[in-house]
Amino acid sequence: MEKTIALIPGDGIGPDVVNEAVKVLDSVAKKFGHRFEYRAVVAGGAAIDKFGDPLPQSQLDLCLKADSVLLGAVGGPKWDNPDSAFRPEDALLGLRKGLKVFANLRPAVIFPQLKKACPLKEEIIGDGLDILIVRELTGGIYFGKHFLSDEGDWASDEEKYSRKEIERIVKLAFEAALLRNKKVTLVDKANILTSSRLWRKVAAELSKAYPSVELNYLYVDNAAMQLVRNPGQFDVIVTSNMFGDILSDEASQITGSIGMLPSASIGDGSGPGLYEPIHGSAPDISGKNLANPLATILSAAMLLRYDFKMEDEALCIEKAVNRVLDEGWRTADIAGDLETVKREGKLIGTKEMGDLVSQIINN
User: Fold this and answer.
1) Among all residues, which ones are annotated catalytic?
2) Which of 84, 98, 107, 238 has the highest Cβ tally under 10 A?
């Protein structure tokens, strides 16, 4: 099978980790008889430097013509000018809108090999953690009207959601729950926000079509507390753009290994999805062979699963990652006892981690 993948290395460690994901994808292609063609796309800070725009239409068009899109990371202190008309992160909003991806899927999973890295007590995490956060991506306060008064003494941001926007994201959450533990938690602020009350109304209506799935509700402040108090109660969390942004970052920290967590941004299947690790650009370690590429490699696995419907190939990558961890290989961010890992000769860099995953797939 021939497929085209738009690659957006982006900024900081983005190029480092994307290179390793490509290495792994090439191993998968060889093993399963596929052909992946890559198209380089410039976005984020790199695009500001080159074009004066974080996402020129020409670069978005390259993504739209591809079968899927893999992103490294964007941003960095180089472009942190509050007076600038553009920020690298504007590329993310532009990609989500242009690709029409309305749902961000973020698995928050504690890998058993890295359980000691979890900041929570063992009696809290129990046998582990496996939560899927389904975040609405193209509506809400991030895309509402923003206003600053002429005097600069007050500002407003609009939180707006349509029934259609809520229906499609909640339905996706129910469908995901059917393949998991059949439990959906809607996180909102319905005691204050009218938009949240519409979310509850729509979710209750849709739940009738999924009688085997348990639906419950939590206010966002309580949900944030429950994630650290009793994370095992959650299966699928579905929520708005802003709440999902915050809660998914909290959940990633609970796992203790932000460098391990992938994400998928998907739409209705009519166009390419957007796949990226959830970590930042970490410009201080860019090009130093220090970054953990596993989140990007696992994002490539999600790309194969959701956009290309290649389940066996996705599982092949995930099993290879688990085997590398089983064998004790670690980048510094997931090393735990760094001195012990060094002494055992198991501390490796970005390129070596990609090589090991590729070797397991090739064998």
Assistant:
1) 142, 189, 221, 245, 249
2) 238
